[in-house]
Amino acid sequence: MKRLDVGLGERSYSILIGLGLHPSLKDQVQGRSVVVVSQAPLAGHLQTLKSFLGDAPKSLTCFELPNGEGAKNLGELERLIGCLIEAGLGRDGMLIALGGGVVGDITGFAAACYQRGMDFIQLPTTLLSQVDSAVGGKTAVNHPLGKNLIGAFHQPQAVHVDLHWLDTLPDNEMSAGLAEVIKYGVIADADFFQWLEANMAGLRAKDKTLLSHAIATSLAIKADIVAQDEREQGVRAHLNLGHTFGHAIEANQGYGNWLHGEAVGAGMLMAAELAKSRGMLDDEQLMRLYRLNKAAGLPLKGPAQMTPEQYLPLMMRDKKVLAGKLRLVLPKGLGQAVVVSDATEAEILAAIAAVQTANH
Ligand SMILES: NC(=O)c1ccc[n+]([C@@H]2O[C@H](COP(=O)([O-])OP(=O)(O)OC[C@H]3O[C@@H](n4cnc5c(N)ncnc54)[C@H](O)[C@@H]3O)[C@@H](O)[C@H]2O)c1
Ligand SMILES: [Zn+2]
């Protein structure tokens, strides 16, 4: 069992990573009314969780969200809050998110709003949520006009990662999670990037020792960045490498049609091409990123029908736009990132075109 701490003063919490659930989870729900939010593909894991918790909670109610990004909306939030009221949860109740980022984001937001804030625990079951969304306290639902536009910062009380959960995760969802793992190497840790180059096949084959190392390393980087900059006024922006391009892809394709991680994978290549054109990345480093994305099973281009010009207005809608200026995270070599706010339209179009016409 690996343990990491997210140091945020009185809002600090632990992340536990291992095979099987840690007994402290039982203590965290002891004597409390609990609502577990989950989805149909997690039915087996939900049964295991219920048996594990046994009679520790005072009561346990299950709430099933529909599958997919479309479930992260205000209507489902209202239905979930209705369930909390009917289950008689007071502010001393406990919400548990058992699922991927969709379940985690809406559950976290319900916990932030319900009775002006209550405790919740993240049990992330996708690789993406285990290395990224379950930690850091960003919670949100989507509006029809844009993704994650209604949300709050609300940290969980604990995050428990059981590596067994990944056994049932489809391959394309594994690849999507690996995009975020690669991102950590690019922005913060050249040695980790190199380790990923050596171990990508084993990770995709779900080798538990390798996964445990990859998840713990990713989360240690994220926890460190969040502890420095909880509300994204500075260094936390580095976690958005590839995301401004990626969000344009997701919006253009309709949310959920391209997986978030797939869009981020292609977006990182666009950011890397832009960095190369500015002399911040050399040819060999750029090639290594293409090769690692390929080894992770990620797309090496954006959607074929999407022209570079279609990216720009969607990128300008991104939350990272400040005073009309697009702020882009770019890799500086492998293992470091910088934010630039002077990228010209011509540079951005050229970087997208470079990815779309690259031959790998
Ligand atoms: N809050 C944050 O900081 C943050 C960061 C990154 C992404 N996100 C959000 O996360 C969401 C994407 O999350 P995701 O990639 O985990 O997708 P997801 O939550 O939609 O899960 C993907 C699919 O896999 C299924 N699933 C989950 N765990 C499974 C398992 N163990 N076995 C089999 N099936 C399983 C789910 O039911 C779903 O159908 C997006 O909404 C994105 O905005 C949030
Ligand atoms: Zn992401």
TrEMBL record:
<dbReference type="InterPro" id="IPR030963">
    <property type="entry name" value="DHQ_synth_fam"/>
</dbReference>
<feature type="binding site">
    <location>
        <position position="243"/>
    </location>
    <ligand>
        <name>Zn(2+)</name>
    </ligand>
</feature>
<dbReference type="InterPro" id="IPR056179">
    <property type="entry name" value="DHQS_C"/>
</dbReference>
<keyword id="KW-0520">NAD</keyword>
<comment type="pathway">
    <text>Metabolic intermediate biosynthesis; chorismate biosynthesis; chorismate from D-erythrose 4-phosphate and phosphoenolpyruvate: step 2/7.</text>
</comment>
<keyword id="KW-0057">Aromatic amino acid biosynthesis</keyword>
<keyword id="KW-0963">Cytoplasm</keyword>
<dbReference type="GO" id="GO:0003856">
    <property type="term" value="F:3-dehydroquinate synthase activity"/>
</dbReference>
<comment type="similarity">
    <text>Belongs to the sugar phosphate cyclases superfamily. Dehydroquinate synthase family.</text>
</comment>
<keyword id="KW-0547">Nucleotide-binding</keyword>
<keyword id="KW-0028">Amino-acid biosynthesis</keyword>
<dbReference type="Pfam" id="PF01761">
    <property type="entry name" value="DHQ_synthase"/>
</dbReference>
<feature type="domain" description="3-dehydroquinate synthase C-terminal">
    <location>
        <begin position="177"/>
        <end position="321"/>
    </location>
</feature>
<keyword id="KW-0862">Zinc</keyword>
<keyword id="KW-0479">Metal-binding</keyword>
<feature type="binding site">
    <location>
        <position position="147"/>
    </location>
    <ligand>
        <name>NAD(+)</name>
    </ligand>
</feature>
<keyword id="KW-0456">Lyase</keyword>
<dbReference type="GO" id="GO:0005737">
    <property type="term" value="C:cytoplasm"/>
</dbReference>
<dbReference type="GO" id="GO:0046872">
    <property type="term" value="F:metal ion binding"/>
</dbReference>
<comment type="function">
    <text>Catalyzes the conversion of 3-deoxy-D-arabino-heptulosonate 7-phosphate (DAHP) to dehydroquinate (DHQ).</text>
</comment>
<dbReference type="GO" id="GO:0000166">
    <property type="term" value="F:nucleotide binding"/>
</dbReference>
<dbReference type="InterPro" id="IPR050071">
    <property type="entry name" value="Dehydroquinate_synthase"/>
</dbReference>
<feature type="binding site">
    <location>
        <position position="138"/>
    </location>
    <ligand>
        <name>NAD(+)</name>
    </ligand>
</feature>
<dbReference type="GO" id="GO:0008652">
    <property type="term" value="P:amino acid biosynthetic process"/>
</dbReference>
<keyword id="KW-0170">Cobalt</keyword>
<dbReference type="InterPro" id="IPR016037">
    <property type="entry name" value="DHQ_synth_AroB"/>
</dbReference>
<dbReference type="InterPro" id="IPR030960">
    <property type="entry name" value="DHQS/DOIS_N"/>
</dbReference>
<feature type="binding site">
    <location>
        <position position="180"/>
    </location>
    <ligand>
        <name>Zn(2+)</name>
    </ligand>
</feature>
<feature type="binding site">
    <location>
        <begin position="125"/>
        <end position="126"/>
    </location>
    <ligand>
        <name>NAD(+)</name>
    </ligand>
</feature>
<feature type="domain" description="3-dehydroquinate synthase N-terminal">
    <location>
        <begin position="64"/>
        <end position="175"/>
    </location>
</feature>
<dbReference type="GO" id="GO:0009423">
    <property type="term" value="P:chorismate biosynthetic process"/>
</dbReference>
<feature type="binding site">
    <location>
        <position position="260"/>
    </location>
    <ligand>
        <name>Zn(2+)</name>
    </ligand>
</feature>
<feature type="binding site">
    <location>
        <begin position="101"/>
        <end position="105"/>
    </location>
    <ligand>
        <name>NAD(+)</name>
    </ligand>
</feature>
<dbReference type="Pfam" id="PF24621">
    <property type="entry name" value="DHQS_C"/>
</dbReference>
<protein>
    <recommendedName>
        <fullName>3-dehydroquinate synthase</fullName>
        <ecNumber>4.2.3.4</ecNumber>
    </recommendedName>
</protein>
<dbReference type="GO" id="GO:0009073">
    <property type="term" value="P:aromatic amino acid family biosynthetic process"/>
</dbReference>
